[in-house]
Specification:
The complex is a heterodimer of chains A (499) and B (549).
Chain A: H1 2-31, H2 34-55, H3 63-91, H4 96-122, H5 128-181, H6 189-221, E1 225-231, E2 236-242, E3 245-250, E4 253-257, H7 261-273, E5 281-286, H8 291-296, E6 304-308, H9 312-320, H10 322-327, E7 337-340, H11 344-350, E8 355-361, H12 368-371, H13 376-383, E9 386-395, H14 403-415, E10 419-427, E11 431-439, H15 461-464, H16 485-497
Parallel strand pairs in A: 5-6, 5-8, 6-7, 8-9
Antiparallel strand pairs in A: 1-2, 2-3, 3-4, 9-11, 10-11
Chain B: H1 3-19, E1 33-35, H2 38-46, E2 55-63, H3 67-78, E3 84-87, E4 99-101, E5 106-108, E6 114-115, H4 122-130, E7 134-135, E8 144-145, E9 156-160, E10 163-166, H5 175-193, H6 214-217, H7 224-230, H8 236-250, H9 259-267, E11 281-282, H10 289-303, E12 307-308, E13 311-317, E14 328-334, E15 339-350, H11 357-360, H12 365-372, E16 376-386, E17 401-404, E18 411-414, E19 427-434, H13 440-449, H14 452-463, H15 470-473, E20 474-487, H16 497-503, E21 509-511, H17 522-539
Parallel strand pairs in B: 1-20, 2-3, 2-15, 3-12, 9-17, 15-21
Antiparallel strand pairs in B: 4-5, 6-11, 7-8, 9-10, 13-14, 14-15, 16-19, 16-20, 17-18, 18-19
Helix pairs in contact in B: 1-14, 3-10, 3-17, 7-9, 12-16
Classes of the chains: A alpha/beta (499), B alpha/beta (549).
């Protein structure tokens, strides 16, 4: 009996620490700033344990039954805490912090009750000095075991949700074990068994379903109704809709919102193309959604547009779904457009065609593979495809959130002998966004737009080329293949923005 | 891995491939077992070749079209001298810098990079300038290099304890060990900057230009490992790192390689670039084959096609017992045509490995003895073609050179690393293995007797640790074995008399192979080739501008 209870101290202590680690890890994962999250979670948890210990004095009778019930409640609340919090965050980030601290405090209070109750149950079997020594020894041993297992085994193999559920199951198992040990002293012993069995069953089911629950929660990370979802060899394409707002997400990254994409695509295309009345051949790298195409096709002098997008599923989707065809004005069906499904870089290396205007719309430089597409070597390759007076426009991440990254791109374009003209536009769903025009001679903004626009006017266009103090040019190195400084700048800068 | 475990794993792999009962795993990918021309080479050993009837005359004959022979031909051609013939036993030129190619990429079958050339490597700089890779003044302290050849970031990573780490220098645990690292690198830095009273660098590259100070030459009397221990370096991580460097460059471990050669690796390189850090290397998907191809193209463009492949020089006779008087007679087996030919040459540049000397040179007992003083490291290269880059363990992202801390091999190089792609797709990984865990003859026996299936199984099992799904993605696995890949710079070779036999400026015969330097580096082979060409031109009174000053 004594050894069994001491072993349960070990389990109970493990579970207690595990819930605290799970809450801390989940908060850091979802909110960022792990130092703050861990400090506040651990602090409130320990404080709540103090409250629990203090409250234990009010438990006067039926110690064993109360202990069993405490274990069951801790098991259920603690076990489901990670899953629940994840769902709450996916549903709305606003009440997440409240829910987090409520659950941390609740679990803390219950865990605080456990050790005093066990000590009182064991009081009759042990001398006081042995009691304190043995119970606390097992308490700290349990904490040690979990603090090692948690990062090494549990999180990598089970994930946060299942780790939480596993410890919930352990708490319930302790309760059932205690029920078996003390079954002859318990009054409502059938009722307690029913409670225990129900908790066990619920947690087991949740544990089994945790895989599906994860993807369900991720689906809820998209606030809106998913109208199309597709996994291709290259990416996961998700289209969501809320009222008249269509959104494209690639690998969970927002690509556009139909409410303000016109700002992005007008800013991407017109400042450059409107100054090239003789532009006949246009190249678009990336941009399989056809939205940049829609803007380019407004110019009657453009005779042919080559769109190189890797993923045939993207161009097929935006050429076939009625809502999306409406959005891009059926650009992918234009007789002037030639769609090439190939790797844009390989295509550039294998072709020697010249173009009057080139749109380079690649993903942000978040890893070394994509960082190469913003290197001096890439701009040298791009330069070979520019006709005499041609311009290229390059999506260049945010000059506000990733200021040094933006100016690094400008520097790199200049390092290969091209004239770089940086500008920016506000796209509400992205924030302040940056572009760079690259050509062989000085650029002047257009004095008039011959095509319809919703965002740009000749009068306001020059302001896009002015950079406020917080976006003004900063020193940055040239991004070379053999240094890849841009990826490091970008990582540092976005790490400070995303929380 | 020790020998018993190696043989055990080979046997197990053989059994698995025989019975095919290894149900859970996908079948081994197809591929070929390639190698240096064993059959033709062994004809030489067994002396099964007929005396030729047909003869031909050529003023200069170069035997061996690896880097040394190509460099000799390159220098001759650059000096406007066209009267030479370049013989190569294999089907193509390049020696240890050959490459293969498939639909995915070119990939090396041997040497795969060139560090930024040192200040004294003037001939290497001249070649790189001719190929357009070194831009501007070839003698500039910090030249600019074509960025397509500068190894892209990240250059190296190390897999240890289930995680990838940036760089290949393993992190040491305690402060005392870190202090050892700092002291080691400081000592190497001091060696790098040290010059003797004559102004020669302590460890130059080419090595022939190194200082001859007694305390430096004394380093050739002990092994690198013993030197480390004598200096109080005990950190296991540091020993691993130094041992890795020896295995990678010399095919032998730090207990075998002399301290002079071991330190040379760390202290000789002082190349700089205007647009790259000094530890950047020059590389290409095909490894160093682009350098071999560049020299060959240069020869072809200046003086026309001069190389003859599939040609084995199997007998070199002394100058005075043959007609026409004063020339050397070289008997050549033309493998494709199945006939022999006698070439009379005024000058012979022997740019093939020196271990062949005893089988070929008649009446040269001193040369035979000197050549027998050399020992050679076997070497294995495997190229794995993958439909895409495999799943990776946590840590540093994929680099050009990827090393496994406790791997039997030296790790792998990614042939497509220099590519710019939106979506990095199919790739080729080049895996290298030294045989430093065997004596050279046993290593050669293992090379000879191990099937491709056994190699494939061993390589995939090793790479499966960081890349769980590599078996599923590998569409082809070719293995290339080389029994005598490189000379081993064991203590005494660098400073000993045997090597000096081959550096002598003989009247009709010059040796031009990295073996003459004692270790297999591009810079050494090219230096020996250019030096032999310049000595030859001098003998023939052909004016030229030296590349070596």
């Amino acid at each position: 009996m004594k050894h069994a209870l001491l072993f349960s101290v070990f389990i109970v202590a493990s579970c207690g620490l595990a819930y605290e680690l799970i809450a801390g890890a989940l908060a850091s994962y979802l909110l960022g700033d792990s130092v703050t999250q861990f400090s506040t979670v651990i602090g409130s948890y320990l404080f709540a344990m103090g409250i629990g210990s203090w409250l234990s004095r009010y438990v006067e009778q039926h110690l064993v039954a109360r202990f069993i019930q405490v274990e069951l409640i801790v098991g259920v609340i603690g076990g489901l805490s990670a899953t629940g919090l994840f769902f709450i965050f996916a549903w709305s980030p606003a009440p997440f912090k409240l829910a987090l601290y409520l659950s941390v405090s609740g679990i803390g209070v219950l865990v605080g009750l456990e050790i005093p109750l066990i000590m009182r149950i064991l009081k009759s079997d042990l001398a006081f000095k042995d009691l304190v020594s043995q119970v606390l020894t097992f308490d700290y041993l349990g904490a040690l075991a979990v603090s090692i297992l948690f990062p090494v085994l549990l999180v990598p193999h089970l994930g946060l949700m299942r780790s939480g559920l596993l410890f919930g199951l352990l708490n319930v198992a302790v309760a059932l074990w205690a029920w078996w040990l003390f079954r002859e002293q318990l009054r409502h012993f059938r009722w307690l068994l029913t409670q225990g069995a129900t908790a066990m069953l619920g947690l087991l089911l949740a544990f089994i379903a945790a895989g599906e629950l994860t993807s369900l929660a991720e689906a809820n990370l998209y606030a809106d109704e998913i109208v199309h979802a597709e996994s291709t060899p290259y990416q996961r394409i998700v289209i969501t809709r809320w009222k008249d707002d269509l959104r494209l997400h690639l690998n969970n990254n927002l690509q556009f919102s139909s409410r303000d994409e016109y700002r992005y695509h007008e800013a991407l295309v017109h400042p450059g193309l409107a100054t090239l009345p003789a532009a006949r051949r246009v190249l678009v790298l990336g941009g399989g959604d056809g939205l940049a195409l829609r803007e380019i096709l407004k110019y009657p002098q453009v005779e042919s547009v080559t769109l190189v997008d890797l993923d045939p599923a993207m161009t097929r989707l935006f050429a076939s779904a009625p809502l999306l065809r409406k959005l891009n004005d059926d650009a992918l069906h234009s007789p002037r457009v030639q769609v090439v499904n190939a790797d844009a870089l390989q295509w550039l290396e294998d072709n020697d065609e010249l173009f009057d205007f080139v749109v380079v719309d690649f993903p942000d430089p978040s890893n070394f593979a994509i960082g190469k597409l913003y290197s001096s070597a890439f701009y040298r390759l791009l330069e070979k495809h520019l006709a005499g007076d041609a311009l290229a426009v390059i999506q260049s991440t945010s000059p506000l959130y990733a200021r040094q990254s933006f100016w690094c791109i400008v520097n790199t374009i200049e390092s290969v002998g091209l004239v770089a003209t940086p500008y920016h536009a506000l796209v509400p769903s992205f924030g302040e966004w940056g572009f760079v025009l690259a050509g062989r001679r000085a650029y002047r903004p257009p004095l008039a737009y011959s095509v319809d626009t919703r965002f740009l006017t000749p009068a306001t266009t020059p302001t896009l080329f002015l950079f406020a103090k917080d976006m003004a040019r900063v020193d940055a190195e040239v991004n070379r293949l053999n240094s890849q400084v841009l990826v490091r700048y970008f990582e540092n800068e976005w790490r400070q923005v995303i929380r | 891995m020790d020998r018993r475990r190696f043989l055990g794993s080979v046997a197990a792999a053989g059994a698995a491939s025989l019975t095919g009962c290894d149900g859970a795993r996908p079948p081994l990918p197809p591929g070929e077992l390639l190698g240096t021309s064993l059959a033709t080479g062994h004809r030489l050993r067994d002396r099964q070749l007929a005396t030729p009837g047909e003869t031909r005359e050529v003023p200069v004959l170069i035997v061996g079209a690896g880097i040394g022979g190509l460099a000799a031909g390159w220098k001759l051609a650059r000096s406007g001298f066209a009267d030479f013939l370049l013989l190569e036993l294999e089907d193509e030129v390049g020696g240890n810098a050959r490459a293969g190619r498939n639909a995915v990429s070119a990939y090396p079958w041997g040497a795969h990079y060139l560090p930024l050339p040192t200040r004294e490597a003037t001939a290497v700089r001249e070649l790189l300038a001719e190929l357009g890779v070194l831009q501007g003044d070839p003698r500039a302290l910090q030249p600019e290099y074509d960025e397509r050849y500068l190894c892209a970031t990240p250059q190296e990573r190390l897999y240890r304890d289930g995680r990838w780490h940036e760089g290949i220098v393993p992190q040491a645990g305690g402060a005392a060990e870190r202090a050892q690292y700092a002291r080691f690198f400081a000592q190497m830095e001091a060696f790098r900057h040290r010059r003797d009273s004559a102004g020669r660098r302590a460890f130059a590259l080419p090595m022939a230009l190194s200082s001859r100070d007694a305390d430096l030459l004394a380093l050739d009397t002990i092994s690198m490992r013993d030197w480390l221990l004598a200096q109080g370096f005990t950190s296991p991580e540091l020993h691993w790192y130094v041992n890795y460097a020896c295995r990678d460059d010399y095919g032998s471990n730090s207990a075998t390689v002399s301290a002079w050669a071991g330190i040379h690796y760390f202290a000789c390189r002082d190349g700089e670039a205007r647009n790259a850090s000094s530890d950047t290397v020059l590389t290409a998907p095909a490894g160093n084959a682009w350098l071999a191809a560049g020299m060959r193209r240069s020869i072809d463009e200046r003086v026309g096609e001069r190389s003859l492949t599939g040609a084995l020089a199997f007998r070199v006779a002394p100058a005075d017992d043959r007609q026409p008087a004063g020339k050397l007679a070289i008997d050549v087996w033309l493998a494709d045509e199945g006939r022999t030919l006698r070439v009379f040459a005024e000058q012979l540049i022997w740019a093939a490995p020196l271990f062949l000397v005893p089988y070929v040179f008649i009446g040269e007992p001193a040369l035979h003895a000197a050549a027998r003083a050399y020992s050679y490291a076997p070497w294995l290269v495997a190229n794995l073609t993958l439909s895409r880059f495999p799943k990776d363990r946590h840590g540093a992202p994929a680099a050009w050179d990827n090393v496994l801390y406790d791997g039997s091999g030296l790790g792998y190089v990614v042939a497509t690393h220099q590519q710019m792609r939106l979506w990095p797709g199919a790739t080729v990984l080049t895996w290298y293995r030294a045989f430093d865990d065997f004596s050279p003859p046993l290593g050669r026996a293992a090379l000879r007797d191990t099937t491709r299936a056994a190699w494939a199984e061993q390589i995939l099992a090793e790479l499966e640790r960081p890349h769980a799904n590599i078996r599923q993605l590998t569409t082809r696995l070719d293995v290339f074995r080389n029994g005598h890949a490189m000379a081993r710079p064991v203590p005494g070779l660098i400073t000993g008399a045997a090597r000096q036999q081959f550096t002598v400026d003989r009247r009709r015969l010059l040796f031009a192979h990295a073996d003459v330097s004692g270790f297999s580096l591009f810079e050494e082979a090219q230096y020996r080739g250019v030096l032999a060409a310049e000595r030859t031109l001098r003998r023939l009174d052909v004016p030229f501008e030296t590349s070596l000053e």
